UniProtKB/TrEMBL annotation:
Family stated for the protein in its record: Belongs to the HAUS1 family.
Source species taxonomy: Eukaryota, Metazoa, Chordata, Craniata, Vertebrata
Pfam families the UniProt entry points to: HAUS1
GO biological process, one term: cell division
Protein name as catalogued: HAUS1 protein
Protein keywords: Cell cycle, Cell division, Coiled coil, Cytoplasm, Cytoskeleton, Microtubule, Mitosis
Location (main, coarse): cytoplasm
Keyword Cell division tagged: yes
A GO cellular-component term linked to this record: HAUS complex
Gene name of the record: Haus1
Species of origin: Erithacus rubecula (European robin)
Localization of this protein: Cytoplasm, Cytoskeleton, Spindle
Coiled coil segments of this chain: 110-144
Length: 191
């Protein structure tokens, strides 16, 4: 899963090299989960914004039809400045996602969006801290693995040298045993 996620994340570019071990994979898996959660949240927000935009557009057409039928009022009969102001108001209402064009709706929408912005910033800061912590853990895991690899190599080299010494002593022992047997034979012959 982590490998597929990294390939998808790097969009076909080569994935940077990393030590594949349990700890590194666990850390990368956690980062993958956070990333996917954030992507889901963003997709939900985008879908919600599209739904609201469609709703507001339908409302705008409805109001346009009502104004045109009842008052014979058209956007084309307004001055350029009035049309610009109405467009600004509509864009602001769409951005703020207000239910009506009242001042109270605008204020409560602004307050709500400000609160949401602070929550999102707080969540992002928390995720950033977690990401930094995970990066530090990953770095320390890589360094620890490197040190362990070096230690294993040193132990293997020392074992190799010890084996050579043991083999040499074993040959000497065999030689001495044979020499003792030979000397015992010569002593018996001499006696």
């Amino acid at each position: 899963q982590v490998t597929l996620w990294l390939r998808k994340l790097y969009l076909g570019l080569p994935v940077p090299w990393y030590e594949v071990n349990e700890r590194a994979v666990d850390i990368l898996y956690k980062i993958k989960e956070y990333n996917e959660e954030r992507d889901k949240d963003v997709m939900l927000l985008i879908e919600d914004m599209k739904d609201r935009a469609a709703k507001y557009e339908a409302q705008a057409y409805e109001w346009h039809d009502i104004l045109k039928e009842s008052l014979d009022f058209s956007v084309y009969s307004l001055s350029d400045e009035a049309v610009a102001n109405i467009n600004d108001l509509v864009e602001g209402a769409l951005e703020l996602e207000v239910e009506s064009m009242s001042l109270t709706s605008f204020y409560s929408a602004i307050t709500s969006m400000t609160s949401e912005l602070h929550k999102t910033k707080s969540k992002n800061n928390k995720m950033e801290q977690q990401l930094k912590t995970l990066r530090k853990k990953l770095t320390s895991a890589v360094m620890l693995e490197k040190k362990l690899t070096e230690d294993v190599e040193k132990v293997q080299e020392s074992q190799k040298a010890e084996r050579a010494r043991i083999e040499f002593r074993s040959k000497n022992l065999k030689f001495l045993v044979l020499k003792i047997k030979d000397l015992k034979i010569k002593i018996k012959e001499a006696e």
